[in-house]
Structure formats: C-alpha cells, structure tokens
Amino acid sequence: MKRCEWANKGNQAMKEYHDTVWGVAEYNDQRLFRKLILDINQAGLSWQTILNKSDAFEVAYESFNIEKVANFDEKKVTELLENAGIIRNRLKINAAIINAKCVLEIQHEWGSFSNYLWHFVEGKPIVHHFNKSEEIPTRTELSDEITKDLKKRGFKFVGSTIIYAFLQAIGIVNDHLVTCFRYEEVQNKTKNQQRK
C-alpha cells in the first residue's frame, strides 16, 4: 500500500492518521477548532509528538469545546502549564483561548467556522497533483490570504505555514501524492459528503 512518504516515518498512529484523517474534508466546527489548536501546538515540533499527546490534549482542552476554551481563566492556564501530557507553552495556551473567542465571533458572523473557512475556496477543495514530497509547498497565496484575515480578526500564532498545514489537514487542500492510495479516496469521500 503506497502512502505519502511522511506517513511511513512515524509510528502506527501516524499511519492511521494519514490513512483516515489527513486531507479529508472537515465541516464540524469543534473538530476544525481542534485541528487548528493542534497545528498551532505543532509549531517547532514534529506532528508525531502532537499525535502522541493527542489524548492528553483532548482531556486538557475539554474535548476542544470552543465555548469552554474561550472561558479558560488564569487558574486553568496554570493547570495546563503544569500538565506534562501536553505542550506546556504559555503563548500557545493563551493563543488557544484567544482563538476560541475569535471562532465564536466568526460563528456569530458566518453561521459557522466551517462556512467561513470553506468560503475561501467556494466550498471546493483544491486538489494538487504532486509526485514527490519536495514539490509540496509550505505556504501558498491561499494560506497567506487566510492568515492575513485571521490576524485581522485577532487570532494568534497563525502564521502562513501553520495555516497551510491546517488547510491540508482539514481537506481544503488535498496534498496527498498522486501515487498515494488516499489521493483519490479523499476526493471521493469529499464528493459524497458534499452530496449529503
């Protein structure tokens, strides 16, 4: 079974993430928020590190309930800074809280965080046709545009490279290699979701 090269460099959890989650179109606000926060926490680290800690993140961040995270207080921040199961970085923790508040504002304005994100591509994923990992960019004009708008709305820790990784993860961009067994599977799954 041919996978994207990066998926074979980690453990079984990395393979499962690649085979079932990465690149699949996501429309659920809570799961979108979860992926955004995990991608922010990955900055400077490997995705394997974040995957290994994902269960601890789930508990620490109250299942990534947007309203709950938006209301985290200083006591909760201290608790998170003492939690060895997650990434203990005050800037990243504070960014999660601020970003949760910003997501709530977007939901009020757009109806959902999903509506907001998907409007940048008019609801249709961008499908690339890369044969090698080296061809895949780390940022694009699209990630630059979304980053600029997110920052204008008050989001923190959202550089264009982080946002591009986020877009790949949530299926707004399909960057599975054309040789990967998931390349067409992801497109077919997205088409089926859009029909519902």
Automatic annotation (TrEMBL):
Signal peptide: none annotated. The lineage of its organism: Bacteria, Bacillati, Bacillota, Bacilli, Lactobacillales. The gene is tag. This is DNA-3-methyladenine glycosylase I. It comes from Enterococcus saigonensis. GO terms for biological process: base-excision repair. Keywords: Metal-binding, Zinc. SUPFAM superfamilies: DNA-glycosylase. Zn(2+) binds at C4, H18, H176, C180. Pfam families: Adenine_glyco.
